[in-house]
Design a protein that fits this description.
Blueprint: H1 5-32, H2 46-52, E1 64-69, E2 74-79, E3 83-86, E4 90-102, E5 105-116, E6 119-122, E7 125-128, E8 135-140, E9 143-148, H3 162-178
Antiparallel strand pairs: 1-2, 2-4, 3-4, 4-5, 5-6, 5-7, 7-8, 8-9
This protein binds 2-acetamido-2-deoxy-beta-D-glucopyranose (2 copies).
InterPro entries: At5g01610-like (IPR036758), DUF538 (IPR007493)
Keywords: Signal
Pfam families: DUF538
Length: 180
């Protein structure tokens, strides 16, 4: 059975409404988290630590609540909630990010996605050139995206006006449905 346009419209409105509610909820989380500590046990912040590995601090948003790092480079970062940051591409952070950090490189990364052509890709590793260049590389499986490193030199807050992006995604979804 082909759904009537009216049903699709209803679905669309439902999706938009829930997207807006979700956006409002996550904006509230982002606001609450501003004052939370981002310190490890010895008083170093993760934003001080990244440059020690040749990596820009802005790879992580300012909602980090805690992190741990072992001697062999395994790390775990907790954020106060899920987070979107609009870089050259929209980047999504889960509330927990894990990976292995070595000088100039994060591998085995879990918890960061990048959006390209309406599709979300898992970022599997992040690399910089050694010596440093103007670029940073996001590895999403079979593709490596070359991005300007400059946008990661400052630490960003999670996007507050998320609604627009989410509505855009819902519209994308709607258009994809219509085109089938
Ligand atoms: C704190 O710990 C990190 C690794 O956990 C280390 O790289 C850094 O040098 C330490 N800072 C101090 C001041 O000991
Ligand atoms: C991150 O959060 C989880 C669940 O709340 C907790 O078990 C874990 O210890 C936290 N990790 C760090 C590095 O604080």
């Amino acid at each position: 059975m082909i759904p009537s346009p009216w049903k699709l419209l209803n679905l669309f409105l439902l999706l938009v409404t829930s997207a807006a509610a979700a956006a409002a909820a996550s904006a509230a989380t982002a606001e609450n988290s501003q004052s939370l500590p981002t310190l490890s046990s010895n008083g170093t912040t993760v934003f001080e630590l990244l440059p020690k590995f040749g990596l820009p601090p802005g790879l992580l948003p300012n909602t980090v609540t805690s992190f741990s790092l072992t001697d062999n480079g395994d790390f775990e970062v907790n954020l106060s909630g899920k987070c979107y940051v609009n870089f050259e591409y929209l980047v999504y952070y889960e509330s927990k990010i894990t990976g292995v950090v070595r000088y100039g490189e994060i591998s085995d990364l879990k918890g960061i996605q990048v959006r390209r052509f309406l599709v979300w890709f898992d970022v599997e590793s992040i690399k910089v050139d050694l010596p440093l260049s103007k670029y940073i590389y996001f590895d999403v499986g079979w593709i490596t995206k070359k991005l300007s490193i400059e946008q990661f030199t400052t630490v960003h807050s999670c996007q507050k006006g998320l609604t627009e992006n989410m509505i855009e995604q819902v519209v994308d979804l709607y258009l994809i449905r219509l085109s089938f």
